[in-house]
Specification:
single chain; about 450 residues; mainly alpha; Zincin-like; 4-stranded mixed β-sheet
């Protein structure tokens, strides 16, 4: 079932298209996701869970919050990341959420999603449609999530027993991975100060993960007796967190605020990164590129500096100059699916596009990004311009499935089946789409 594929609409670059109404949106960024996955990896290994199975979704919200849903899917609010004083605080919260996954606390999700879908799915699809219609080349990844907050409150409130169990699991996983639970305690202590505040302004994490004095004492005791209590995090983790915060601050906060914080005289990576993004947001392209060039000169093997330079140039209308930046980024990080999609978008915008190469980039990306709506749309365009109408119809079927438009998806399936005869693998995928549509239609009244 493609529940999550209807929750998420992927485009190509870091920006935001909010869903209409009172909802949330998702952000995708290769660098940020890599950093968060690196935080999660040792915890997942300590929990005997496959790190590759965890999917991390970044929710664009200033609230301090995180939650898990639908299996190994971890949602982290940007507010939690930005307000973490230390990477250990964020890692501690991630360990707690992984504790919920390892403890099987989501077994009722599948049963409750049907009840919740009436309040959430309509808004999700409206947001997805709005994002798709924008065609904004600066948009990295946006998921229409209108109504998701209501659904979250409905089925993601864990019992106190489950909360205590997740705390215990987090402590165990942190200890087994050579980390102290101090960060978890510090973040919970910060949140605990808000308990006396009106619930109308409390961070949602307190509402779905209620604190108790007993829980706090237990985590504090674990910190006191931790064999790793005096152990510092590695410089790599500390520096990664500075970059992570600088990137989010740069994109989500006002440029002037960031230019005041990341001062001109500070030549650290994170300060230059923050200033470059601030000038990019102010549409002062030469200043942004000048700062990025200093970073690229100092760190020529860092793919994300090349990627950002390419994004800025592309959005400034300098498509020819943007292409080598993405090509360099991909040569340094060939598994970056979002970069493949961005490069394909750039190639399609150039005269005489090499359609076979573009299709190859997109086909590779969509193996790991099968719900990437914009990727499927670009692939349909590439196939169509190359005269392969049957494959274009298949790509459009996948695109429509990714936003829950099952009627149009079925039309494209029928169209593709008539035109594709000798591609057994594609015909099998078309059959899979048919079966999914039949399943969705069998859910009376749930999916429309």
């Amino acid at each position: 079932m493609r529940i999550l594929s209807m929750l998420i609409l992927f485009l190509t670059s870091f920006n935001n298209v909010n869903a209409r109404g009172n909802g949330m949106s998702l952000i995708r960024d290769s660098e940020i996701e890599d950093i968060l996955k690196s935080y999660a990896k040792p915890i997942l290994e300590a929990a005997h869970l496959d790190p590759k199975a965890l999917r991390i979704f970044i929710v664009d919200s200033k609230d301090i919050n995180a939650f898990v849903a639908g299996g190994q899917n971890l949602f982290i609010h940007t507010g939690l990341i930005q307000k973490s004083k230390h990477p250990a605080e964020l890692i501690g919260v991630m360990a707690h959420e992984i504790g919920h996954i390892a403890g099987g606390h989501l077994t009722r999700f599948d049963a409750e999603i049907d009840r919740a879908s009436r309040t959430s799915l309509a808004g999700l699809l409206v947001g997805a449609a709005a994002a798709l219609a924008s065609k904004d080349p600066s948009a990295l990844a946006v998921g229409g999530m209108a109504g998701m907050g209501m659904a979250q409150r409905g089925f993601l409130k864990f019992s106190r027993t489950q909360e205590a169990s997740a705390d215990q699991a987090a402590i165990l996983f942190l200890e087994k991975s050579g980390q102290s639970p101090q960060g978890l305690y510090d973040m919970f202590k910060t949140l605990n100060h808000q308990i006396a505040i009106s619930t109308s302004i409390q961070d949602p994490y307190l509402l779905s993960h209620p604190m108790t004095d007993e829980r706090m004492r237990h985590i504090e005791n674990a910190c006191t007796h931790s064999p790793h209590r005096a152990k510092n995090l590695s410089p790599e983790i500390l520096n990664a967190h500075k970059r992570l915060t600088a990137k989010l601050n740069g994109h989500l906060d006002s440029p002037n605020k960031n230019l005041r914080y990341y001062k001109e005289g500070d030549q650290s990576i994170e300060s230059r990164y923050g200033r470059a993004i601030a000038y990019y947001k102010k549409i002062e392209t030469p200043k942004a590129i000048s700062i990025l060039d200093t970073l690229i000169n100092d760190y020529p093997e860092d793919p994300f500096f090349h990627e950002l330079k390419g994004q800025i140039l592309f959005e400034a209308g300098k498509t020819q100059e943007a292409r080598p930046c993405y090509q360099k980024a991909l040569s340094l990080k060939p598994d970056a699916s979002l970069m493949h999609i961005s490069l394909a978008q750039i190639e399609l915008a150039l005269p005489n596009p090499k359609l076979a190469e573009i299709a190859a980039h997109l086909e590779k990306a969509l193996i790991t990004e099968p719900e990437n709506t914009f990727g499927w749309e670009l692939l349909a365009t590439a196939y169509g311009q190359n005269g392969d109408i049957g494959m274009a119809a298949y790509a459009l079927a996948e695109k429509n499935m990714s936003i829950g438009n099952i009627d149009d998806a079925m039309q494209q399936v029928l169209r593709s089946e008539k035109l594709i005869q000798n591609k057994h693998q594609i015909r099998q995928k078309l059959q899979d789409i048919r079966q999914e549509i039949e399943y969705i239609r069998s859910k009376k009244g749930i999916f429309g």
